[in-house]
Specification:
This protein has about 150 residues and is mostly beta strands. It has a single domain, classed as PCu(A)C copper chaperone (Immunoglobulin-like). It is built from 1 helix and 10 strands; from the N terminus they run H-E-E-E-E-E-E-E-E-E-E. The chain has one helix spanning about 1-20; strands at about 20-30, 40-45, 50-60, 60-75, 75-80, 85, 90-95, 100-105, 115-125, 130-135. Strands 1, 2, 3, 4, 5, 6, 7, 8, 9 and 10 form a 10-stranded mixed β-sheet that branches. The longest helix has 17 residues, at about 1-20.
């Protein structure tokens, strides 16, 4: 009886953790011919009253998957790997071109519009969030101005 109660308690905790992070608008950029890398973008929504950190990303479509950010330094935009992407309690963090994003290196095949890419995010508490993200045209999510 004690084992059943512990099991039920652990199952109820995992369902709370499973609801801690929601994903909206996820997509991966299609790749031009010969380009072995791509990026994923999305909105991370923290549904709980404590901060969440995405610690790692993985996918069966790439040899390496990394968390990345962009910064402007001396007039040059530079991209670099980061250790975590934080999502404040009851808040959102947007992964978008020119900001936080997830990089895919060594794609196992070209990504064409209409394909779907599996992506798994590992959170600070060991929880994983699995996503099936559609592949969109290279310019998806980019904003252009006439200036």
């Amino acid at each position: 009886m004690k084992f059943k109660m512990i099991t039920l308690f652990l199952l109820s905790i995992s369902s709370v953790f499973a609801a801690s992070l929601s994903i909206e608008g996820a997509y991966v950029r299609a790749t031009p011919p010969g380009v072995p890398n791509s990026a994923a973008f999305m909105t991370l929504i923290n549904n709980i009253s404590e901060d969440i950190s995405v610690m790692k990303a993985s996918s069966s479509f790439a040899q390496t998957v990394e968390l990345h950010a962009h910064d402007m330094s001396d007039g040059v935009m530079r991209m670099y790997q980061i250790r975590v992407i934080d999502v404040a309690a009851n808040d959102t963090t947007v992964l978008k071109p020119g900001g936080y994003h997830i990089m895919f290196f060594g794609l196992k095949k070209p990504l064409k519009e209409g394909d779907t890419v599996d992506l798994e995010l590992t959170l600070y508490n060991g929880e994983t969030v699995k996503i099936m993200a559609p592949v969109k045209k290279v310019m998806s999510g980019m904003k252009h101005s006439k200036n």
